[in-house]
Amino acid sequence: MSKEKKNKAGNIGFLLWQASNKWQRNMKAALDSIGLTHVQYLLLNALAQTGKTQTQSALAAAAGADVMMTSKVLRTLEKKKFISRKIQAGDSRSMNVQLSDAGKKILQKADVLVEKTDEDFFSALPSKRSKFVKNLSALLAAGTGK
Predict the structure, then answer these.
(1) pLDDT tens, 63-107?
(2) According to a count of CB atoms within 10 Å of the terminal CB, is the N or C end of the chain lower?
(3) Backbone dihedral region of 96: left (phi > 0), alpha (psi from -120 to 50 degrees) or beta?
(4) Number of domains in the chain
């Protein structure tokens, strides 16, 4: 094995990137089957978790997403009739977002697909999964804020 290949194979950042890419490909394939992207799913899920109408900026914060990207994705979800958006009373720059019945239905389908995809992907870690989650959480908590 060349030194370059050995370094890549043993580099934890490279391995994390490879695992993340593989997981994303699996998730994309699952959600493509119902016409959703992963970001669309995350925003629908965040909206459903609150159980109420939210502003776009509050939804972006709840989902850990960029506000501008959230706005663009919400336009697509609105065209698909999965959400409705209305200008907030008293602030024409702020939009309230609400999950539609069609959005609730697609989210139920997506939840099943996401759960199965995660279960299949992480089945390689049956006895180590909780420690893996704990370690990932520690990495995120210790991040540099970038």
Answers:
(1) 999 999 999 999 999 999 999 998 877 766 678 999 999 999 999
(2) C
(3) beta
(4) 1
